[in-house]
Amino acid sequence: MQFSVRTTNYQNQTMLNICDAELLGKKIIQDELTMHISENYYGERFVERDEAETLLKNSSIINMAGKETISLSLKLGIGSELAVKKVSDVPFLIIFNM
């Protein structure tokens, strides 16, 4: 499984945007809401599971999208299933560890 990631520095914190690779470039539509999983936001590079785990563990702010990404995060103890939101069956989760 590959993940698409972009890391940035935000207020001296590591911010990670990560999604399931197959979601990159897709539009998620539910009712009047349209979310674009853009390359500009999530698409700096592709990584395998091991590197995705390391990035998740070492980031302070994480924006996640996709079933595999959220599953990996929850398995690592990052985030809560109660905080996961779904748009058209695609899960999203945002984490702030400050």
Q: Secondary-structure blueprint of this entry?
A:
Layout: E1 2-10, E2 13-20, E3 27-30, E4 33-36, H1 39-42, E5 45-48, H2 49-57, E6 61-65, H3 67-75, E7 85-87, E8 90-96
CATH class: Alpha Beta
* CATH-scheme architecture: 2-Layer Sandwich
| Helix content, binned percent | 10-25%
Question: What is the CA-atom radius of gyration, in angstroms?
Answer: 13 Å
Q: Could you describe the largest sheet, including whether it forms a barrel?
A: 6 strands, mixed
Structural class: alpha+beta
What's the N-to-C terminus distance? 29 Å
User: Which residues sit in consecutive blocks of at least 5 with pLDDT less than 50?
Assistant: none
Order of helices and strands: EEEEHEHEHEE
Q: Assign an overall shape.
A: globular
Mean pLDDT: 95
CATH names the topology as uncharacterized conserved protein from methanopyrus kandleri fold like
Structure write-up:
The chain has 98 residues and is α+β, with helices and mostly antiparallel strands. It has a single domain (2-96), classed as 2-Layer Sandwich (uncharacterized conserved protein from methanopyrus kandleri fold like). The protein contains three helices and eight strands, in the order ββββαβαβαββ. The chain has helices spanning 39-42, 49-57, 67-75; strands spanning 2-10, 13-20, 27-30, 33-36, 45-48, 61-65, 85-87, 90-96. The protein has a six-stranded mixed beta sheet with strand order 5-1-2-6-8-7. It has a two-stranded antiparallel sheet with strand order 3-4. The protein is globular. It starts with a strand and ends with a strand. The model has no long low-confidence stretch (mean pLDDT 95).
